[in-house]
Specification:
Serine Threonine Protein Phosphatase 5, Tetratricopeptide repeat; 18 helices; single chain
């Protein structure tokens, strides 16, 4: 009786078919998470899909799209390059995705190369219209002189306004800076840097909520706005909201701007966030003589150097900054971050 029951149980157990998730199962869950903008979950599911079906390039492509969305452009490009190496003719869309990522990184020659490859090889592809628009933008940038961030008829007047505003900002004369920046925004509405400097002056003058609201509004209109990410990272770090700030910091770690003002701003944020080695690499690449005369340059570059084990060099740079900006000496030294 007992043997018979056991035998029956064994027989019944052998009829149970175990559930073995397929790559498509994980992929579906990854897509659902991505559509809900749950990017961490999307990455987890898509990596599981790749483990279950390592020869399915679609999963790698979709994971690259998630990485692009969160600003991890290098990780996205690595996946796309692997797909092209194995399935180039079948996955032409990878050329456009690479071009888009390189454009975000500021590597415009690479972006142009890959978008032209996409246009050449694509036949009624999904990204045809977007690719043409990207190529037009890259060509227009080629036609312009590689200046900082303005190309206006009244450039001399704008330059005077900008230098006046920078002077007040560096002297921490917030109300005077706000007055100049308000005038700049009326006279030069296309000069967007003035808006972000205005938000910074607002924040430092005590109107933190309005400054945050403005930057969030501008970021909603343009999710790739470097200056908005910079200011929001800075504001949130100063308020002690580190977790929220790191969303913007991580985006900036994967961005390599063309313009020196933006390069300096990103280097400062990386220092504030504790990515000292990365910050030093950005500071070293600054070549614009005007930018390296800024108070921000002396202060945050010396702090980054100090925290990477070179206090003597850091102090030399700090003292040089103090000679140009005496108020800097009131902040103690490169070992103090504020």
């Amino acid at each position: 009786m007992t043997i018979s029951s056991k035998s029956t149980a064994v027989q019944e157990n052998t009829n149970v078919i175990p559930f073995l998730p397929t790559g498509n199962f994980y992929f579906t869950h990854g897509i659902q998470a991505f559509q809900k903008r749950r990017f961490t979950a999307a990455v987890k599911w898509l990596k599981k899909a790749m483990e279950a079906a390592p020869d399915e390039p679609l999963y790698q492509c979709q994971l690259s799209v998630v990485y692009t969305e969160v600003g991890s452009y290098h990780a996205a490009n690595q996946l796309l390059t692997e797909v092209l190496a194995k399935f180039g003719k079948e996955y032409v869309d990878c050329y456009y995705l690479l071009a888009n990522n390189y454009a975000h990184l500021g590597l415009l020659n690479d972006a142009k190369k890959y978008v032209e490859l996409y246009i050449e090889k694509s036949e009624d592809g999904e990204f045809d219209e977007a690719a043409e628009q990207l190529l037009d933008m890259l060509n227009s940038l080629d036609d312009e002189e590689e200046e900082d961030e303005w190309a206006f008829d009244d450039e001399d007047e704008l330059l005077i306004y900008q230098e006046t505003a920078f002077y007040h900002l560096e002297q921490e004369e917030w109300e005077q800076a706000l007055a100049v920046l308000e005038e700049m925004m009326q006279l030069f509405p296309d000069f967007s840097l003035a808006q972000h400097k205005y938000a910074y002056a607002l924040f430092k003058n005590g109107n933190e909520k309005k400054a945050l609201d403005l930057e969030k509004q501008w970021l909603d209109k343009d999710h790739t706005n470097i200056h908005s990410h910079v200011n929001l990272a800075k504001f949130l770090l100063l308020q002690g909201n580190d977790d929220e700030a790191m969303v913007h910091v991580n985006r900036l770690r994967n961005v390599f701007p063309m313009h020196d003002q933006q390069k300096l701003a990103v280097a400062e944020i990386l220092t504030r966030a504790g990515y000292y080695e990365e910050a030093i690499d950005r500071f070293r690449k600054l070549g614009n003589k005007q930018v390296v005369k800024r108070r921000v340059y002396f202060k945050w570059y010396s702090i980054a150097i100090y925290h990477t084990g070179n206090p003597s060099k850091a102090l030399q740079l700090w003292e040089k900054g103090c000679q140009k900006f005496p108020k800097l000496s009131e902040e103690g030294g490169p070992w103090i971050e504020s």
